[in-house]
């Protein structure tokens, strides 16, 4: 076997069998060029310490190891690791604190690890970290304060924490923020400190309002609000003059403000709301792509008068009523729509 294992031809190692996984560690000195390691084994309870010998490893994927309880501290020796992906390791309780030694780490994904209660504060020492994605780890109560020091963090994705007390406010490079929480009723005012944010998605069914500080996000280009109980938007939202794409999905949203038409760069607007009865004409005059879903009646569309659109418009109207769904698409040239 030793004669067949050559450094020059092994770049990836995919492991699915516990026996083969452990046996190959005996030949670790042959794997110095391994760049990517995938471990997928539902019977594996602990990773061998020898994993620390993969000194050129760049990407480590640990997935569906449902009985894995801990990661060895030797992971801290993977000085060239850039991507750490851990998914569906339901018994894993924590990450090793010496994760701070992984100075080249740029991406961390932790998903569906339901026994993890805390993230190590040492994550804040990963100065090259660009993407932090924590999904469906329901025992985690709050973000570690250490991540507030991640000056190069660009994407933060957090889902299903029990409590979101703070948001990082010193991450000047943060460009994308996803917040998905079932029980969240308030977004911290610190959201307004993320002045370089370009894309913000919030999916919180119990959220009824947004903080006025959201108006400080003047560099925001995409805003996606999937909040079923959201009633209205703060007036300060009209300060987001770089906003290009806005999506609102709410069962309680009753009025589309005409001020949307005053957002100078708004190009695409999507409204999913059953209680809206009227769309201001200023909206039609402004946006190029307008998607309307689940709105049963529009006073200004059900009237006998025509509504005109310029050649740039692409309007999709999804009208739900007793007769089913009606779709109208207006595009390509000067058009008008008339409901009789």
TrEMBL record:
Residues 25-109, 114-177, 189-274 form the Disease resistance R13L4/SHOC-2-like LRR domain. Gene3D superfamilies: Ribonuclease Inhibitor. InterPro entries: LRR_dom_sf (IPR032675), LRR_R13L4/SHOC2-like (IPR055414). It comes from the Bacteria. Keywords: Repeat. This is Disease resistance R13L4/SHOC-2-like LRR domain-containing protein. It comes from Brachyspira aalborgi.
